[in-house]
Amino acid sequence: MTTLSRRSFTAAAGAIAATTAFTPQMSFAASDLRTLGKSSLKVSAVGIGCNNFGGRMDAAATKLVVEKALDLGVNLFDTAESYGQGLSEEFLGAALGKRRKEAVIATKCSLGTRAKVMEACEKSLKRLGTDYIDLYQIHRPDPSATTEETLRALDELVKQGKVRFIGHSNYNGAQTAEAAKLSADNKLTSYISAQNHYSLLTRDIENDLVPACEANGVGILPYFPLESGMLTGKYKRGEKPAEGTRLATWSKNPGAAERFMNDDKLTKVEKLQAIADKNGSTLLQMAFGWLLSKPYIGSVIAGATKPEQVESNVAAAAWRPNAQVNAEIDKITKTA
Description:
Blueprint: H1 6-17, E1 33-35, E2 42-44, E3 46-49, H2 59-71, E4 76-78, H3 87-96, E5 104-109, H4 114-128, E6 133-138, H5 147-159, E7 163-169, H6 173-186, E8 191-197, H7 209-216, E9 219-223, H8 246-250, H9 263-278, H10 283-292, E10 300-303, H11 307-316, H12 323-333
Parallel strand pairs: 3-4, 3-10, 4-5, 5-6, 6-7, 7-8, 8-9
Antiparallel strand pairs: 1-2
Helix pairs in contact: 2-3, 2-11, 3-4, 4-5, 6-7, 9-12, 10-11
């Protein structure tokens, strides 16, 4: 893809959008910000998942992706203390450098006891080279800590000015509702976001988490929105994943790749591809546009190993499915 300025890139995406049966959001730009939940935090419709930083990507490759994202108006960068064994945070912080204030840094801690939360936050701040984290998330429920203990620790970090907002990841609806009630009853900082696996192919959260989030003003940040590449169209039935792709790497571990590349998902992808072809669109546009048509979605977090992938994701996010396409999608992927 030819490198474009933010203005010309947005104009080109809008012009192409007008040629299909999809309903484009003509005012869309990567720099258009969406409110995350009931908070005042504004995030770009496209976010960068930083799981590859420090793993499949070195510091130089990370910098190229981060700079391209910022240049296109993407401001959300989602990492975690566990990504790259801490290198993801280090590489992200170094890549942002003097442009730190243009970014919304979201990171995660793995454990929820007070001591672990406080310790993890200090280490993340140091690795990121910043004195505050925009969105600090609990990576998953911690059975060794009560919800209230975790909330009190996070509330303390907010009051200290080290964290601006808090979120959770991999919670279910009941856990989300419980946390909201505890925050209200005890006047503690409340969660503003839920980060869960959600895509055209994985819609389980619609029956449980989504209602709880909508009831409590919590925005949703989908991870694996492209199902590790399945919704980019690059994986085909009967073909081995190309070397260097994520699923090629995972296929070396029994069962890992099958989580995404299995017969059921391949069948659904083929049917979705047929809808896209019929409407002059792509799977990538469908994957982003469908998610962003949901009012409870804050930003769609997708990994990128090259600047060109950031450009493609931003362009795809300009699309929205019309009512007919939505109905066809539901017939294929809606969870009972």
